[in-house]
Amino acid sequence: MDRLLNFIKKEFLQVFRDRKSLLMLIGLPVVQIVLFGFALTNEIKNAKIVVVDFAKDIGSQQIITKLASSGYFQIKKTLMNHDQIEAAFKEGNVKLAIVFPDHFYEELLHLHSARIEVLADASDPNTATTLVNYITSIINDYDGQLLPSADVPYQITPEIRMLYNPDLKGAPNFVPGVMAMVLLLICVMMTSISIVREKELGTMEVLLVSPVRPIMVIVSKMIPYLVISLVDLASILLLSVYALGLPIRGSIVLLFAISFVFIITALSLGLLISTVTSSQESAMTLSMLSMMLPTTILGGYMFPIENMPVPLQLLSNVVPARWYYIIIKAVMLKGLGFSYIWKETLILSGMAIFFLVVSLRNFKPRLE
Amino acid sequence: MRVLFYILQKEFLQLSRNRAVLRMLFMSPVIQLLILPMAANYEVKNVNLAIVDHDRSSYSQRFVAKVLSSGYFKLADFGSDYNQAFTLIEKDKADIIVEIPAGFERNLLREGNQKLLLAVNAINGVKALMGSGYLNAIIVDFNNELRSELTAPQSLNPLPVIETNPYYWYNPNMTYPWFMVPGILVMLLTLVSGNMASTNIVKEKEIGTIEQINVTPIKKQYFILGKLIPFWVLGIVIFSIGLLVARVVYGIVPLGNLGLLYLFLAIYLFALLGFGLLISTYSETQQQAHSLTFFFVMIFNMMSGLYTPIDSMPHWAQDITYFIPIKYFVEVIRMIVLKGSTFHDILFHLGAVLAMGIVLNTWAIFNYQKTSR
User: Fold this and answer.
1) Which of A196, A331, B203, B353 is the most exposed place for a label (fewest CB within 10 A)?
2) How far away is chain A from the Cα of B1, in angstroms, using its nearest Cα?
3) Nearest CA of chain B to the CA of A224: how many Å?
4) Which of B272, B278, B263 has its CA nearest to residue B350?
5) Are residues B124 and B34 in the same domain?
């Protein structure tokens, strides 16, 4: 036991001596949570649009005022033909153009019908549909107000209650996701590199001939990163609450306990990677190149999983971050207890055990 | 010049001997490009509804039928207990609860108005907004239907109708991969090249072989150039493979000039590799280089505009994105490939990336010391 403690102490010293890496490990989550928490939102707003108003009458002007006051658009009024609009789309600054034809209001009043042309740059389909939806609903709204507003009979009015996130901010959705991603990648990368490093530099041999069991050599390598991750977790949570204004509705103890499980899963995955690679370069390539994008895209917080084709939905099950994201949302934002997330926790623990078992089988106490 | 040739020979040899890494460098982007874009779809569909009907009247049933037949919604549960519906929201099995109060039909017919409660899980704000928006539109429609049925036709003014005809240019079928594939390709390229460049010099430092190079008469700019060029070539090859995959698998044929795209690629790689070199001049061990690279690449990944629109970010965050090289390439590849933008359109992007490349590379060369401190 004493020997093991000495080993752990050695690892801590090694980690703490490398000031630059340590600063990164502690500073990185802090910077990223604040940056991403404020910056990321999949809401579309401030989109630059062009209004081409050939009508210049009350109708078109009222609609333009309504569009401007919605906050979704930055409006530029110019007269342009289709070619000029296309040129503007190609420059990439303008996302959409609205064209009011001549005599718009006149036709609306007398013929009871008028047309507005909406041209969208659909190279980004999401922005295009969203903007068109905004515009149609604003115009429909205007349309409805045209009718002399006596008592409109037979009216169902919905009363909408936005649960958990009444201001519809981006942070409640993205912060748990970024948390999962940052913790996972840090743990995987750092454990795999620090173990492979000893192999590469040849110092692994020295450790393996020591009287401590080989497996303990490895475990003692993981412990400093476990501690650092817990520190990171604490700072992430503090920032989420005090800088981003997110609530922690559930139990903090539960949150930490489950994060502990997640961190162990990530560390074991790092261990697994270290057993199948022989240089820091390949460990890094494997852990960053092949994990960053899958974690971002299949983790469930960028793109809804239920939208994916079925094979990819199945594939997303093996992404550990996906389960942790669900858990964090449930405990932190919804305030739910363990009975709601036992399944996800079980899956994470299962993954951890699987990674550990496979890496132990792969682990060779002798060098080739 | 001959010196540079020999360094290049050494670097290429070293690269080609590292089979395990090389295989990963080529395989990993291709595999990810084949799989990931299919998953990247924001479109809000499959909104799950839990309907709580306290009224169970013919009108409430008609309303429910109308909602469900719209095609936007899936019925997760139909019952008469709000709390039961709420547990479904907690378990993420339902996104919206529609509560129809008792007396819905009676109030609607006698008093002419009636409230309806929509409780929306708003953690994903956009989904909440779109889902409740769809429902709202259906309710408006339902109101109109009732009105035209229940009121005498002559008392109804003809409603002025404004028709909006949306035209979706460049991607009329709204194929999502068209938008995502080019961006993901750029991200993968950045991961590969940025990584390789940032660790390469450090690797020689850590193993100790840099001493041998330092005692030779090789000038430092040649040495750095010798490190840059192989990764530059590698990046162009990987990008070309990716472009081929995009064409064969996703049917994406660049609308614009390929030469222009490669010109931008060349300059982008110059900037990116300069960035990698700068990191390696500041690190002593590969571990340091990795954690520094990781820090920046994460920021590149999330702030590039690849997933979330840059226009929606707060202004200070938008200002930060001007210093993120990948942001320019993501925009440019989408412009050239999807819209056929021309040299004139991407001039600003080109200038910005070129300037970054010059600054980063000069900085790296100045910061690289042949003598160790």
Assistant:
1) B203
2) 30
3) 15
4) B263
5) no
Compute the count of residue pairs across chains A and B with CB atoms less than 8 Å apart.
402
Residue B373, number of CB atoms within 10 A of its CB: 4
> pLDDT tens digits for A107-122?
888 887 888 889 998 8
A-chain residues within 8 Å CB-CB of B34? none
Query: For residue A121, what are the contacts with CB-CB under 8 A and spacing of at least 6?
Result: A89, A94, A95, A96, A127, A128, B169, B170, B339
Position B162 in a domain:
no
Nearest CA in chain B to A71: B312
Token pair recorded at residue B134:
């769809």
Lowest mean pLDDT segment, chosen from A177-186, A262-271, B164-173: B164-173
pTM across the whole model: 0.85
**Residue B202 and residue B342 in one domain:** yes
- Nearest CA to A187 among A325, A352, A353? A352
Question: How far is the alpha carbon of B286 from chain A, nearest alpha carbon, in Å?
Answer: 7
For chain A, the residue count is 368
CB-based contact A126 B206, cutoff 8 Å? no
d(CA B95, CA B50): 8
C-alpha Rg value of chain A to the nearest Å: 28
Contact B228, B273 (CB under 8 A): yes
The whole domain housing B70 covers 47-155
Q: Return the CA Rg of chain B.
A: 29
Q: So what's the ipTM on this one? A: 0.83
CB contact under 8 A, B191 and A293: yes
Contact A122 B140 (CB under 8 A): no
